[in-house]
Amino acid sequence: MTKLKTTATALALATLFTFGLLAHADDQPTSAQVYHRTVKIDGLDIFYREAGPNDAPTVLLLHGFPTSSHMFRNLIPAMADKYHVVAPDYPGFGNSSAPSVEDFDYTFDNLANVVEQFTEKVGLKKYSIYLMDYGAPVGFRLAVKHPERVETLIVQNGNAYDEGIDNEFWKPIKAYWKDRTDEQGDKLRSLLTLDATKWQYTHGVRNVETISPDTWGHVQPLLDRPDNQEIQLALFYSYGSNPPLYPKWQEYLRKYQPPTLIVWGKNDAIFPAAGAHPYKRDLKNLEFHLLNTGHFALEEDGTKIAELLRGFLGK
User: Fold this and answer.
1) Residue range 121-156, pLDDT digits in tens
2) Is the pTM of this model over 0.85?
3) Which strands form 84-88's sheet, in the order they lie side by side?
4) Domains of the chain by range and CATH?
5) Is 36 a catalytic residue?
6) Residue 68 to residue 187: CA distance in whole angstroms
7) Among 63, 70, 84, 295, the one annotated catalytic
8) Are 33 and 51 within 8 A, CB to CB?
């Protein structure tokens, strides 16, 4: 009888392996509990998602516009068996405080300052940084200020070169940098509508049916909060402070040579692949992947990105 039970158990396990329902821990991520937490930074509630062992290598996930740590909701548990994964929401985004523009100066310098204080408050001493969209100017500010804390970079549709912001999308935003008037600002309010949010998630994807409406269903109500459009316009203007810093960021890359993984949605109309290739000029230890998807590459290619990220960090 014992032999029969052993045989039956072996057959059952073999079946699970065959159909991909069970995998060896060294090969595939396991499910992990994700915690949803808040800390006070300069009187602001900063929300963050956290998972994985505290003593494991840390991956700091920095989100883009117009989303929040919500964009990493699937990546976090896919990494957390081997890594300590932390994803904060910036002020004005997600579940963090969103003071008015009169009560908080919405600049990328200030966002980076809040994230820097956040890392120190939650005890992150060394980390890899996942840079996406707005996460790039926030993360590069951190890296330049504290190069000793940065172990690796993961760049996903996050720009550090002029070549990536010379397309049609940026023309009205650049006009606002030159002429910060109500008239120029009003031209950008269309970027804050439901149609624009859906477009960011669906443009350039292979199959729109793979993109969950939960994405814009989460983002748009937050964009539609009272005074939030003014917050976003302030950051559109502040984005103009980033290109003058590109040479400094590029010098950081050349000097410190952080091992870097690029996983870039090549069909992105905001940060096209033209912004990915210049990293090759400055980095010697670079793993480079262009993915056949759009701006929010994790939505369609999250499994692929998790595999690439685990392989990269595993080295």
Assistant:
1) 999 999 999 999 999 999 999 999 999 999 999 999
2) yes
3) 35-41, 44-51, 84-88, 58-62, 127-131, 150-155, 260-265, 286-291
4) 28-314 (3.40.50.1820)
5) no
6) 24
7) 295
8) yes
